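Subject: design request, 212 residues
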């Protein structure tokens, strides 16, 4: 009986997710570089999810899935998944700094995840899914730390924020099949039941300027 109940619940959740996805337009990244282009790098669990989060914001040209924060050059997905390379799944965000600020991107980063989860996001577990914000200069570092302090002081979370704040040394793009994954594979079970519901929650709660 319990198994039957579980199957029914999963079927209902899947049906709801599919209904949501039919009304959701996923914004694809663009390849042509912008005049005022800047770059930001964030890790917040599965990079499929992070990709659509940032690409949904006005001023962002593209979010490229990849790996950063590790000690091995040119890692691949299989090696990153073992946790032995030290890399996190991240997105490299290309944005127009005259249309969206780095501070807004940082706010979106924290709003689209649970920054109190250590080495995991939801059911995705491992150091590759850790919450991490990379900075390229002192100004970016200060903005990240200021947002951590603001969230901590607001007592939004009952647990401590564990987001790593690290200098960006290297970014390695992920394999082609990971890029724009949700756009190309909307029927995938993980996409339907995890990625899209998480994104819909973010879009409902974040006070940002969305493309659609």
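Subject: RE: design request

Done. Sequence follows.
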């Amino acid at each position: 009986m319990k198994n039957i109940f579980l199957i029914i619940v999963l079927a209902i959740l899947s049906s709801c997710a599919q209904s949501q996805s039919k009304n959701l337009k996923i914004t694809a990244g663009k390849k042509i570089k912008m005049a005022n282009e800047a770059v930001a790098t964030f890790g917040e669990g599965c990079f499929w999810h992070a990709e659509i989060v940032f690409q949904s914001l006005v001023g962002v040209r593209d979010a490229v899935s990849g790996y950063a924060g590790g000690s091995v050059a040119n890692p691949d997905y299989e090696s990153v998944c073992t946790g032995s390379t030290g890399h996190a799944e991240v997105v490299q965000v290309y944005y127009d700094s005259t249309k969206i600020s780095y501070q807004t991107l940082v706010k979106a980063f924290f709003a689209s995840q649970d920054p109190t989860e250590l080495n995991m996001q939801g059911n995705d577990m491992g150091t590759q899914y850790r919450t991490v914000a990379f900075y390229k200069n002192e100004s970016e570092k200060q903005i990240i730390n200021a947002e951590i302090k603001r969230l901590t002081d607001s007592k939004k979370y009952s647990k401590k924020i564990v987001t790593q704040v690290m200098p960006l040394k290297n970014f390695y793009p992920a394999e082609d099949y990971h890029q724009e994954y949700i756009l190309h594979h909307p029927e995938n079970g993980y996409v339907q039941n995890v990625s899209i519901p998480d994104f819909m929650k973010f879009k409902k709660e974040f006070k940002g300027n969305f493309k659609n």
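Residues 41 and 154 are 25 Å apart (CA to CA).
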